[in-house]
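Hello forum,

I keep getting stuck at the same step: I have a sequence, I want structure tokens, and every attempt I make locally crashes halfway through. Rather than fight my setup again tonight, could one of you with a working pipeline run this one for me? It's a single chain of 271 residues.
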Amino acid sequence: MLTDRRDMISEDEILRRSGKTHNKFQFHIYDNLASTNDTAKEMIRAGGGHGSVIIANTQSFGHGRNKRIFYSPEGGIYVSFIFSESQTPNKSQFLTFAPCIAVCRAMERLLGLYPVVKWPNDILIDGGKACGILSETLTAADACGMIIGIGVNYLTEEESFPEGIRATAGSLKQWAKNLSRNEFIAGLVQTLDDISVSFTREQYLLEYKKRLTGLGNDIIVITRDGEIRAKAVDITEDGGLIIEKTNGAFEKLYAGDISIRGVHGQQKENS
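Reply #2:
Ran it on my machine without issues. Output:
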């Protein structure tokens, strides 16, 4: 249990440390939510929310792609950003690539880590999933918005995860113990804000591919219809994974989990 006051999420601390931003953000901080993304959707449906940053200390029903459970115990960072289309150009690339790039840059700058991305949007450190991302677009009757949900296993204890996922889950605790959640959230806000106004379509794709693990490797793609053994060939501008199957045929995928051999993310030397 977190008892250190510096680990309490504070709007004042986040604002103080993030400094001036291009976009104007409003912070909404909760002890517990079912899901920060679901709360973001409620805000959009109510006709507002643009520029909102929803943060929860824990989530009861955090979820990722295909409604898969994202375990959200105390010590993690669970945050959703709401952007309007007018806040950022290149909507498709922003939703697909910007969250991964922003999280990786924040981990590098603040914690001295070399994270990598496992397609489409898992952030890995030492082979463990340290962060999950869920980007969504909601169009209601009179309102629409882009939602970027980010869950980071920041100060999360290993025993907080169910036994079934402890082998694949990762936590930043050993590197993050001297950096508060407020400091990391502030760095993440600032980084995502900078990307939203400065990146071109080409920059999104180039940096995402640079951080992606597995391109050129033999992989196993796990889909609803079963497993596909293939080679990861390339990424399209809208985030699709181009694979070459064992029969020589090429296919473009937009959903599925992949298994890749190799080392996925590591600490910088001498950091």
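The two ends are 28 Å apart (CA to CA). If your local run keeps crashing, start a new thread with the error log.
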